[in-house]
Structure formats: C-alpha cells, structure tokens
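subagent[fold] <- orchestrator: predict structure for attached chain, return tokens only, no commentary.
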Amino acid sequence: MLYFIGQVLPYIAGSIFLIGVVYRVMRWLKVPVPFQLTLFPAPKDGTGRVTAVATEMVFLKSLYKNDKSLWLWVWLLHVSLALVLGGHVVGIYYLMNQFTLIGLTPQASQALSSVLGTTAGIVLMVALIVLFWRRISDPEVKRLSDPADYFDLLLILLVVITGNHMRLPNVHVDLPAIKAYIGGLLTFHPTPIPENLVFITHFLLVNILLIYFPFSKLMHVAGFFVNRAMLVEAAPVYPTPAGTPVRSSFASKQTVLPGTGTGQSTVTRGV
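subagent[fold] -> orchestrator:
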C-alpha cells in the first residue's frame, strides 16, 4: 500500500490533474460567445487589461463591492493559500534556510520560516472553517449550496489540518527526507515515501485533491482567467469597418441564433 501511495499514485494524480485542467480550459475556449461581454470602463490597451486582471486576482475588487464581510474571509483564504503553496516550494527546497539569502542566520531563517508557515496555515484553516460555517448557518447560502460545495471545503480543510498537524512540537518530520522524496518524484526516480503517518495522510489527501480538482468547482481558479479575459476585452466600436480583424479568440466565435437553421443567420463578435 505504501508503494502505491508513495510511488504510483502521485503520477496518476499528477496526470489526471494536468490533463483534466487543460481539457476543461480548452473546452471553455471553444464555446461560442455570441455577444460582447466587455465591462465598462474597459482598459484601453494590453497593459491595462493585464493590470485589470491582476488587480482583480489579488484584491478581489468585485467581491469587495458586493459583500465586504465575505470578501475578508475569501481574501484571507486566497492569500494564505498562496503563502502556504509558495512556502512549501521554497521551504522544502531550501530546508527552511531560504531567508539566509537576505542575510539571516540559518537559525533565524528556520525560526522565521516556521512562524510564517504556521501563521499562514492557521489563517487558512480558520478562513475555511468560517466559510464552511457560513454555508450551513446562512439560510440563503445554504439553500443555494449543493453537496459538492461542502465536499470541496471539507477536503481542503482536511489537507490543511493534516499539514498544520505536522507543525506540532511533538510531531517529528524529517524535512531532508521529504525533500529527497519529492525530488525523486519530480525527476521520475521515485523512492519509498518517508514512513511518517501524518505526512503520509497529508500526502494522500493532496493526491486525492489533485485527482478531484479538474472535475470540481475548484476549477474556478482557471476559469477566472478565461472569464476575466472576456470581461476586459477591447471595447467594441460601432460601426465596425469592413475587413477589420477580430480582436481575440473570443471575438472569432460564431453561434447560430435559435430558429435560424445551421448557417443562414449567425452572430460573429467583433465583425
């Protein structure tokens, strides 16, 4: 069983995750978009569009305008999740000595890394609990929720709880062994998984999450970029001069209007 969890499952999970995400994004991009969806005031150039998408991604401005209390916890969730993911990559690679790059001693770097990682993990866990409580306590949100909404939050919460568990003082985690193990997976030379029950449980849950991700509502992470690309698309100009090239991959989509047959009356965006 440990052989499967440690040396087979990661490749299955990684393959399903990558193929599933790419497949769903490609399907989204092929769906006809018959009408201009640009929100005004629209950015005037490519730099403005990139800035608008980046600003929305970091600050969630749309949510802030509509529900400030929900925004706070959603924003904390996304920021702490980003810190946790980044901390995993940097912390494991440098064995918590990443802050020596800015002049700290190894001891100070390890202490700071531990404090930041623990804080981000706790904030992430609290944000998930608050959002889960909101789903079961707010009548309107509860009415609109389906089982997948609860499952998504619970699965991520289990991953976070087991991750935080590894930071408890009485739990010994061999970070160099984990680094060597992860390195073996990434270079396609897998080695036996470190025999630490908490780490194995955490790692198993992460793999389950990767397998589940492409088929879940968690795909909103990728959908955000597709959606925002349409909302910040160049504003239409009417009448559009004949022969003007389409503005984007979205503008080139065609769709047949209901009741018009197969090709007699179509709507083409941007032409």
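orchestrator: received. Logging for downstream: The CA atoms of residues 177 and 246 lie 53 Å apart. The first strand starts at residue 254 and ends at 256.
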